Amino acid sequence: MAFEGLSNRLQGVFDRLRGKGKLTEEDVSEALREVRLALLEADVNFKVVKEFIAKVKERAIGQDVMKSFTPGMVVIDIVNKELTELMGGTHTKLAKANKPPTVIMMVGLQGAGKTTSSGKLAKMLQKQNHRPLLVACDVYRPAAIKQLQVLGEQLKVPVFSMGDQVSPVEIAKNGLQHAKDNNNDYVIVDTAGRLHIDETLMEELQQVRAAVGPHETLLVVDAMTGQDAVNVAESFHKQLELTGVVLTKLDGDTRGGAALSVKAVTGCPIKFAAMGEKMDALEPFYPERMASRILGMGDMLTLIEKAQAGIDTDKAKEMERKMRNAEFTFEDFLEQMDQVKKLGPLDQLLDMLPGAGKMKGIKDVKVDDKQMGRVEAIVKAMTKEEKRKPEIINASRRKRIALGSGNSVQDVNRLIKQFDDMRKMMKQFSGMMNPKAMNKMKK
Ligand code: GDP
């Protein structure tokens, strides 16, 4: 996971601070020295680190940390606030044109994730009931246009293209006109990148920019490239007056330096964070929530938003009723797995729970998507009747299911046993929830 090293180190420093009842000035200085090292090791720009520590120190002195009853907590709170400030303070919304369409130009080096992010952004806008149009201006990377068309088809978002023999400026202009003619309220222009910054690339991007007058010029940068990402951002910003950054590949084991330095160095806010290859792996970037995740305090707000967007409330209510009445079947079980999957990879969800990183066990549990796949295969190999009435699954049926799903009979046995236990527990639970039983307990 991104930030893991930084997160662990900072939490270690703070645990030691919390453990001490009284703090001396020396304790605080020592802690800040460690914070400084942790940030440097996470590849945060050294100037940024220097300023950061100076600000924390200044605040700590101003607040008379030593006199507080809980000095450790005060220091943590200060670091949390400063980390939030460092990443931009508050969330910066995507611009919206007074007169649609809003034009968003996506720029960045090749491989940073521009095309993928364009698709993700289109999906996000579509979910908010907008009518985005994707414009394919990357005429140099082989297959970039095709890639965008495939994404568009998958998302049911229209893609405007004129092949790769027309100049990007022409395509962008025509794309914008196409959006106006077809009532698209957002235009996302996917431009070409190079392996490194060069003048021809910049000139061409400037021309595209002049042709369509974007309301947003978003730079897509790969968080895995650390300080390089920040340098890239600086040069793009000088030439194109960026309005924001999309930070991709935060699902990888990036140390976090780019996320923590890019705003401070360029002044450009991070507007979105991408955490995976799938089309729904894009989140609006909230500095305070990211700081909270880094410090192991979780991010319940994002988790709740994901749940609200991903879970069908009617289905959830029906599921709850079934659980209460112990009518839960393997069919429901599959459906519930699907719902959970929609929220994103399990280990990313766990990271959003406060303190989950420190809970014994959870950290070492490798949330295994393969294991989930196996369970799913077993359930899918059951007949309709077996799913509804698991009690009829006898030895020969178990053998058949094992064979059909490519698992061992032991795997099948284990799952059925777990399912049985779960149903029993639900029954007990619903027994406890019934009013008569509650009254009995009160007496
Ligand atoms: P472009 O050249 O900038 O248009 O880059 P692409 O959109 O083609 O992305 C390059 C590669 O990075 C592709 O294999 C994407 O699937 C992958 N990618 C993009 N965003 C993410 C992300 O947030 N996480 C991960 N793990 N991979 C990503």
Automatic annotation (TrEMBL):
Query: Is the keyword Nucleotide-binding assigned to this protein?
Result: yes
Question: Which SMART domains does this chain map to?
Answer: AAA, SRP54, SRP54_N
Q: EC class of this enzyme?
A: hydrolase
Kindly state one GO CC term assigned in the UniProt record. Answer: signal recognition particle
Q: What is its EC number?
A: 3.6.5.4
Domain named Signal recognition particle SRP54 helical bundle: which ranges? 2-87
Cross-referenced InterPro entries? AAA+_ATPase, P-loop_NTPase, Signal_recog_part_SRP54_M_sf, Signal_recog_particl_SRP54_hlx, Signal_recog_particle_SRP54_M, SRP, SRP54, SRP54_GTPase_dom
Key words, A-Z: Cytoplasm, GTP-binding, Hydrolase, Nucleotide-binding, Ribonucleoprotein, RNA-binding, Signal recognition particle
Indicate where this protein resides in the cell.
Answer: Cytoplasm
One GO biological process term:
SRP-dependent cotranslational protein targeting to membrane
Q: Where does GTP bind?
A: 108-115, 190-194, 248-251
The AAA+ ATPase domain covers: 100-247
The SRP54-type proteins GTP-binding domain is annotated at 101-296
Q: Which GO terms describe its molecular function?
A: 7S RNA binding; GTP binding; GTPase activity
- Write out the catalysed reaction: GTP + H2O = GDP + phosphate + H(+)
What interactions and quaternary structure are annotated?
Part of the signal recognition particle protein translocation system, which is composed of SRP and FtsY.
Record-linked NCBIfam families: ffh
Q: So what does this one do?
A: Involved in targeting and insertion of nascent membrane proteins into the cytoplasmic membrane. Binds to the hydrophobic signal sequence of the ribosome-nascent chain (RNC) as it emerges from the ribosomes. The SRP-RNC complex is then targeted to the cytoplasmic membrane where it interacts with the SRP receptor FtsY.
Query: What free text does the record give on domains?
Result: Composed of three domains: the N-terminal N domain, which is responsible for interactions with the ribosome, the central G domain, which binds GTP, and the C-terminal M domain, which binds the RNA and the signal sequence of the RNC.
Q: Which family does it belong to?
A: Belongs to the GTP-binding SRP family. SRP54 subfamily.
Q: What name does the UniProt record give this protein?
A: Signal recognition particle protein
Organism of origin: Paenibacillus lutrae
